[in-house]
Amino acid sequence: MTTEKNIPLLEVRNLKKYFLPEKKFLEEQAPPVRAVDGISFTLKAGETLGLVGESGCGKSTAARTLLRLIEPTSGQVSFCGTNLFDLKETEMRSLRRKMQIIFQDPYSSVNPARRIGHILQEPFEIHGHQDKKENAEKATQLLEQVGLTPDHFNRYPHELSGGQLQRVGIARAIALNPKLVVADEPVSALDVSIQAQIINLLLDLKENLDISYLFISHDMGVIEYFCDRVAVMYLGKIVELANSEQIYNSPQHPYTTALLNAIPNLESGRIKQKTSIKGDIPNPATPLKGCAFHNRCPIKEKQCEEEIPPLKEIGPGHLVACFLK
Amino acid sequence: MSSPELDIQNLKVSFSTPRGKLTAVNGISFHLNRGETLALVGESGCGKTVSALSILRLLPEPPAEILSGKILFSGQNLLSLNAKALQDLRGRSISMIFQDPMTSLNPVLTIGEQMAETLLRHTAMNRQEALQKSADLFGRVELPSPEEKLKHYPHQLSGGMRQRVMIAMALACTPRVLIADEPTTALDVLIQAQILELLDNLKKDTGMSILIITHDLGVVAEIAQRVLVMYAGEIVESGPARALLNNPLHPYTKGLIASVPKLGTIKKTGARLEEISGNVPSLDQRPSGCAFHPRCAWAIEKCKTQKPELRQADAQRQWSCHLEPGSI
To answer: Any idea which fold A3-18+32-320 has?
Structure first.
């Protein structure tokens, strides 16, 4: 790794996003939903960071907030040293060419009335390239880069399968040579045999185009395959952050352990351990006192019900928010 | 050997569409043994859900049409029953749970009323007894504070709890067969593990048989004794779950298993997942010969023209491929 690669590409500090429910007439304001509740992490150039957690843990909100697709409640995000939340809308727009996103559902993330070729030319048009012929050529190149054929140029989204359309989503994301691509559950909506194709494509693009990924998924298997480091989120907070080896070989937070234990093993046919985790994720609008996980935690103690455990370093680069570690 | 609980013979289902008549299920045969969990595996559009819905005649006919076949349940052919007889059967002898518990519950009725409805329809209970029984069932599916839950509306419950309600409803009349269509796909991993464990325990307690439909091989490994793999409306491989997952015979099964990232194989730079190339064929573009041949790495000339028949690998395993076992 060169020294240049050690400068963080993305630095997120204490990012918060609270959603305030609409106030009804004559009713008291309901408490805010703390979707993202103070998360901090860095992403080095060339690195892939996985953000994993169950639905409602705030992983997608975190991704959208740090790209400023939704405005944050508080916190700081610097991208190559620029604080994004200080930028004006026009400055942000021009910076967006360096930071792109791939969405979960390829069908709802493209305009159904536009041909594929048009969808792929749009990024160039928006960012000031007006030469139609050149844009069309670039769009055709993109199609080939993601494993489609020039033949797809004049087709409409509904004529493509989910996997093919996800390739279009990826082509659109890499069109302007971004440095950072946020992939929000990019394979969850796809069939098993297609998932592997898309993961391989993303890995190839990383090698060839020097992209860093923030990879969001609920699937621990995919995350392990794809990511250098992993952040585990629970109810808006990061509860464990470490490199893949540490997370998968010696998970420290009981929630991480539970997630790993819940994955069925194809060879032995049994999950590692019967579920010790009972109950559901609590409502983020009415958080529990103390550690948010304590109502489901198999090893909780008195302290966990009263105080919120801080995220502390227990080994080099290994952060855990648990009193018992 | 005792006769199977459900015996499906040569089931063929088609749909009338603007593009013509499309065959979704192309003559499949299988049986479900008493007390067994059988998994029907395949990708979207392979016909697994259509097969399951046909058993209870839940497909809208038209556009769906059951072209041929028999579905035998305790000696009766379900395909020749009238509407009244089918209604008596549904929910009493054969129950079904669906993927999305939110859309299968009525949002404007309380959970208790919906539960009681099943019991009032199929048993001689009065309302009070039905509600009491509902609370008992909620306890059995491990819903916290069951009495309270009777008064709740679906939106007040989490996804996992709603699926527990669906399971409780399905079990209300102690059915002999439970058909579960992707029961955990909409749920989080931790909740998925809970629900699978619950289904397994309930099966052991009641002795019912489960037909589980899924695209997730992890779910198969976790809960099924036997597996049927479907591709493009046909069964391409079947056998005991352990043997099939450890030693797949059909190239498609092998590819499916290889495309799941395995835990413990920490990513190495440049390492790629094994993938199945190409796309799942749409119903109106079924390839000639073996439907899998355009995506198969081992396809030979014969595969393009001749459709392979299902053949017997041993007493319990079948697969349909022209290649000899061990050559893939």
So the answer is: Rossmann fold (3.40.50)
